[in-house]
Design brief:
With 232 residues, this protein is mainly α. It has a single domain, classed as Rhomboid-like fold (Up-down Bundle), CATH 1.20.1540. It is built from nine helices and three strands. Helix 1 runs antiparallel to helix 5.
Length: 232
């Protein structure tokens, strides 16, 4: 299932959501231009490396931020490929505007970052538990932060209609589905992939537990963060 749009209008222009999308696209363009030269170095220097975060020691090449723990922020704007970027930005475009609308721009920005941090720390904890030899591998992507947006959307708008592309082999059809089915189905898939990885199954380099951690953070944080008086 691939969400295409939702039937859930907002009152204001989603400035933060659009800014985040533009920033991710700009950073990816820079990564792409550097791919023939220092692309891997850029990923290693600005991506989130659990070993660096836990020890404070900077692995070569030198980190693009000081202290090295700050790369937990820069990693949220980096992506591993066109599909990675495109999928993340599609989800942020569809679901981010409504969460920004109810939180207000400042709270939404804080919410987004906190969910991204929670996602990275969740993945770090599971990496230490299941594959400690991988704590030196960089993690990149906005997936964890955006998963928090999805969790928040599920809480606030479970019955919102989402226009979804359903594919099954050669069968392609666009249908309207409730958000709880689209987003709940997405989370269930992530959860089972995460559980399978505990038994040694490969996740294809995808930080599945970051998705789970970010989603749960969004579920828990959205209600206490919504202001009593809606921003105007």
């Amino acid at each position: 299932m691939i969400p295409l749009s939702d039937d859930n209008p907002t009152r204001r222009m989603p400035v933060i959501s659009v800014t985040l999308i533009l920033a991710c696209v700009a950073v990816f363009a820079y990564q792409f231009l550097q791919s023939g030269g220092s692309g891997p170095s850029f990923t290693a220097s600005c991506g989130f490396i659990p070993y660096e975060f836990l020890t404070g020691k900077d692995l070569p090449p030198s980190s693009c931020l000081t202290p090295v723990q700050a790369t937990i922020l820069t990693s949220m704007f980096m992506h591993g490929g066109f599909l990675h970027l495109g999928g993340n930005m599609l989800y942020l475009w569809i679901f981010g505007n409504n969460i920004e609308d109810i939180l207000g721009r400042r709270r939404f920005a804080i919410f987004y970052i906190v969910c991204g941090v929670a996602a990275a720390l969740t993945q770090t904890a599971l990496t230490l538990f299941t594959a400690p030899e991988e704590i030196g591998i960089p993690m990149v992507g906005a997936s964890g932060a955006i998963a928090g947006v999805l969790g928040a959307y599920l809480v606030r708008y479970p019955t919102a209609r989402v226009r979804t592309l359903v594919t099954f082999g050669f069968f392609w059809r666009t249908i309207q589905l409730p958000a709880f089915l689209v987003l709940g189905g997405w989370f269930v898939l992530q959860f089972f992939q995460g559980v399978a990885s505990l038994g040694g199954s490969s996740t294809g380099g995808v930080a599945v537990w970051a998705h789970i951690g970010g989603f749960v953070a969004g579920l828990l944080l959205i209600t206490p963060l919504v202001p009593r008086r809606q921003p105007v």
